[in-house]
Amino acid sequence: MPATAAPPLLALADRYAAAFPGSKARFEQARVLFPCGVTHDARMMDPFPVYVSHARGAHKWAVDGQQLTDYFVGHGSHLLGHCPDDVVQAVQEQMARGTHYGSCHDLELEWGRLVRKLVPSAERVRFTGSGTEATLMALRLSRLYTGRPKFLKFHGHFHGWHDYVTVSADYPYDVPNVPGVPDDVAKHCVAVPPNDLNRVEDALRADPDIGAVILEPTGGHWGTVPIRGAFLKGLRELCTRQNRLLIFDEVITGFRVAPGGAQAFYGVTPDLTALAKILAGGLPGGCVAGRTDVLAFIEPRPGKPKMKHPGTYNANPLSAAAGVATLTRVATGDPCTKANAAATRLRNKLNELFEAKEWPWVAYGDFSMVRVVPGYRGERPGTQAGVNDGLIPHGNDVNKLDGPKNMRQFYGLRQAMLLTGVDWWGFAGMTSCEHSDAVIDHTARAFEVAIEMLGAEGLG
Ligand SMILES: Cc1ncc(COP(=O)(O)O)c(C=O)c1O
After folding, report:
1. Exposed end of the chain (fewer CB within 10 Å): N or C?
2. pTM (2 d.p.)
3. Any domain includes 4
4. What is the pLDDT of residues 99-121, one digit of tens each?
5. Ligand 1 pocket: which of 77, 132, 222 to mutate (most atoms <8 Å of CB)?
6. How far is the CA of 368 from the centre of ligand 1 (A)?
7. Range of the domain at 380
């Protein structure tokens, strides 16, 4: 649907339901199959999620036929867009040769070599089944290496869904217990606000049981509260001085921010890195890439404890095929440059729009990640910002940028954007190298129409 289509005069949710009847019918079936009808928390949507039949490049198609510009990009895994020919061909060829040998194979060697070539921290690589498994492994290795049982993380930083890292991942951040996580597990995590080196130093000094610091290096929830180079450099120095391991969770930023991830871009090398998503080219897979002496705890050695690490799908041939094809292209630098340029263009276009219309909205973000904030009346960003130097609204306050949201407005924007032909992830989105200038300009126009629709509902 073109972004300029005049909407019929119906309430937004009704208009959405009328436009996506196939999704509505499927959701009715899903509600009796799945808790809350969906298979991932992020797919919950009011009144129902959109069902998709296929995808290509920067687009996906709803079962009701609409072409949607996609800003979910496979939860961040599709830097190359949907169904890139080289990845499809590699996976199809591998499919015919075998999906799981239960044996070592050539593609895992090629995949591991590419990770080592691209990621500065990657002296050794161990493949896992997912990003969650990668952070689980990194933390367990840190305990074995340092002999210290605890770790420090940051408010609003997401590291998957295993027990230890769920603490302080979401607002309210200072609640120490998480439903279903035993208190004596949760107490092994010390959480502090991001971007405050003094708080980190105080916490490390106060607690010698903290063996590692883990973070999303461009900011929690893929940059909702951006982190930039100075903080990363400070953390690196602090961890070295205090003899703790520094773990970068580059599950999203790895191969996205730059071919070597945020660590390559900012020139700060962690001891361990958790990777997934783009690593496996849109198929399941993850890895820990880090120091030889730390990953050595996976090896059986006389007199040393060994970390057990089975995992049916570690380095499975299909993921390896997709990963090798994807990382081969990432290594050229071109996909990261294009995706970053697309997001930068979108942030600047949106800020131009908001300024021209005098709407209380602002766009921000770094690299290929874009966010919008409603109800914002503070200092305006420039409209010529670069890839990671734009103004961060609300003084980068975690409680304002990553605090409670107006969910009516959140879902309203999603519905309105879908009605204008864009699948926008709540108040945020990510780009791929397939998001051309024309695609971005269409999205900027879609925002104009969508925010007008929201305004008509009193939510603008
Ligand atoms: C920064 C970060 N770490 C870890 C994970 C968990 O990865 P997975 O979903 O592959 O388990 C995610 C998932 O979105 C993530 O964004």
Report:
1. N
2. 0.97
3. no
4. 999 999 999 999 999 999 999 99
5. 132
6. 17
7. 12-82+334-456
